[in-house]
Amino acid sequence: MCNHIIAAIHGTSKGVSGVYMLATSKKVKMINHISIQPENIFLRRFVTEFVILETENEQPLRKEFVPKNGMVWALTNLSVTIHNSQYRNFLIGIQTEPLPMKWEKGKGVFVRFSPYGMSRFTTIQIDKFANTIIESDSVWGNKANELNNCLLSHTNLKENISLIEDFLIARIRKPSDIEQAIFDMVDTWDLNDDLSITELKQTIPLSNRQLERTFKKLIGVNIQSYRRISRFQKAFKQMQFEYNTLTDVGYNSGYFDQSHFSRDFKFFTNYRPNHFFEKADFYRQLNKLIRTSSAV
């Protein structure tokens, strides 16, 4: 079955790649990283990217998963230890605080869903996943394990991404009018976080209580928590990719109080902004090099 599917797939994958070198007191650890957008245009609203990650370190790599404004699906041949349990094919629900992980040597594909993306591929309320780690087969049955085994048996990146896309497209659910209106509200917020809830909910025929309840089912957290995570993520990305001062980062991300920015950043990463900003310079240089190379 796996070979039959792959035989119909052709072409090359486009994405941003790079090699990350993490300096530690013991040794230098290597992380190969590739980020790819979905080929299927319709899928792009629900899946923001596929991240292919390969660790070459002999010793386990300790990393903290910082909160993101959407769920993540990991399909790997490496062992990931979270809360003293080991996983290979699993879903990370939306997190409201940093999640410590330990990575063994290996390779994996990480599917990053948009804030409401996961709601299109399951009938389970997304708030049931919040702050949890769930085996993928508990959502999609043994088909999820079959897919991961199929990915592990082939090394062609284009083929693997196409297999994941086909798996998701076969399970996609059309949103109702109310769900679509909430998705549009989230997209509008992400473009302009100055807009108030009162302004945005005018087009949604729900009471405040109904809106909060429906939003949480689709996104995983309530509106206030989502906006807090989304604002933090905007600042976090700027600190990794741009050379703005911390004051500019806070202001551009919707923080009008620097102490508020500092508190949120510390809460979501366990680092103060200035500490992380110093460490992030290496990654900003690397990302600039990667973007320049990919444009050639």
Give an account of the 3D structure.
The chain is an alpha+beta fold and 296 residues long. The protein has two domains: 2-169, no CATH class; 177-295, Homeodomain-like (Arc Repressor Mutant, subunit A, Orthogonal Bundle), CATH 1.10.10.60. 43% of the residues lie in helices and 22% in strands. The protein has eleven helices and nine strands. The protein has helices at 2-7, 137-140, 142-152, 157-169, 177-191, 197-200, 208-219, 223-241, 246-252, 258-269, 273-295; strands spanning 16-23, 28-36, 47-55, 61-65, 72-82, 85-92, 99-103, 106-113, 133-135. Strands 1, 2, 3, 4, 5, 6, 7, 8 and 9 form a nine-stranded antiparallel beta sheet that branches. It is globular.
Itemize the secondary structure elements and their pairings.
Blueprint: H1 2-7, E1 16-23, E2 28-36, E3 47-55, E4 61-65, E5 72-82, E6 85-92, E7 99-103, E8 106-113, E9 133-135, H2 137-140, H3 142-152, H4 157-169, H5 177-191, H6 197-200, H7 208-219, H8 223-241, H9 246-252, H10 258-269, H11 273-295
Antiparallel strand pairs: 1-2, 2-3, 3-8, 4-7, 5-6, 5-7, 5-8, 6-9
InterPro entries: AraC_XylS_family_regulators (IPR050204), DUF6597 (IPR046532), Homeodomain-like_sf (IPR009057), HTH_AraC (IPR018060)
Protein name: Helix-turn-helix domain-containing protein
Pfam family, one: DUF6597
